[in-house]
Amino acid sequence: MRNLKKFLALVMVVAMAVSFVVPAFAKSIDEYSDAAAAADALASKGELKEVYADAVQLMIDLSVMKGDGDTDNLRLGDGLSRAEFMVMLYKATSGGVAIENKEPSYSLMPAVFADTAGHWSKAYVNWAGTTGISAGYPGEEKNFKPDQPITFAEALLLCLKAIGFKTQNETGFVFDSQKIKSLAYEVGMLGHLYETDGGAIDRATACLLFDYTIFSEQIRYTYIGQRYMTGDDTVMAGAQKNPSWTLAEYAFHLVSGDFTIITDGVTFGLP
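Predicted structure:
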């Protein structure tokens, strides 16, 4: 699957021809203002450089990732705030569409978390709080701490929730970075990120995490109160994976493995 992502641009051309949609083409990494810095950030990933580069380009192509609004820099080596990550997470679930173009009501409602009232990310954080994606900052549930750097463990948990994981269905669940990594491993969300520690992550790592997230199978709960076995994989208590549903297919109309186009009149979630 990883190598096929290099052909995404060609697949997008075919999809546009099918649906008669002609959106602007996404830029390549080397077309951004900080292309040299982006190349250095990717080079720092060592032998996984191409894996990260493919993930970053895929997130650009799907409008999940974009350059900084002021400078048009990708800033791949920079960390992400919790608010910035939430914007990307929303776009990963919405087909790359900004919240104001898809669900403007989240901008109009009061802030779900006290510290996001008046914050630029209020709508995205409201979405997360309303849908159960986020219950607030661990230990300070009335606040979200939008400007605080997001850690790998926090990012993993948010992505797990985006594909259906429900902490309230996990007996005695507490925020623990190792437990969260184990859960992510069970649903196939870690991949090459297996050795990543629980600390702050950079934007390139976020792109690879979103890559794995959109192709991860949905988690569904059976409420049987015991561990559910599916194939050779053991998944969470009372949960099972739904192989017929991924964000790649649901939000972007992609199929893992060969990027088959679903010709239902919508192309990659583009407006």
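Summary: The chain has a mean pLDDT of 79.
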